[in-house]
Amino acid sequence: MLNIVLFGPPGAGKGTQSEKLINKYGLVHISTGDLFRAHIKNQTELGQRVNALIAEGQLVPDQITIDMLEEEVSKNPGAKGFIFDGFPRTVAQAEALDTFLESKGTRIAGVIALDVDQDELTRRIAQRQLETGRVDDQADKLQKRIEEYFNKTIHVLPFYEGQGKLSKVNGIGSIENIFADLCAVIDRY
Ligand code: AMP
Q1: For position 189, what pLDDT does the model report?
Q2: Which of 14, 50, 76, 105 has the fewest CB atoms nearer than 10 Å to its CB?
């Protein structure tokens, strides 16, 4: 199996590039943000539990997120592999993912961090807010998400670096050029 973590702050282009990568490599895309938004839209019990946290730009507690992620992976038993987008966002999630994949006889092949500077992130998210109306893309909520990223999520990088699995790709430029750089990394796995 080919399991990849696409990593980066809000607005780094994880969703856009994931869509292209799943087409090229035949993988299943799991975005925990998309899954949560679907739960909220469908007003499931989980959606109601996480709605306020997500609207405020805070991370959902680890165990809730891990349980949802594991359920989603288990729904795709024949998958050639997965692209994890927006997960893991804490070291506890990264550890849980390792344990879970090991129990399935597989592992993370590599983690690719999309590198985008703060000004460009702010510009992209303002644009996305106009296009999608995502409440958590509004400036004050975005600020909280960025704080969560630097307080909790950034620590996931040294975790994977310690495993020798981390690569960085410049996330600024044309979608096609960034995609080509990502493919060059993945083709070495
Ligand atoms: P995203 O679409 O990946 O930016 O996620 C939107 C929101 O969903 C985040 O700001 C969090 O509130 C929540 N979320 C998504 N993935 C996770 C995760 N791995 N851990 C905790 N909360 C998450």
Answers
A1: 95
A2: 105
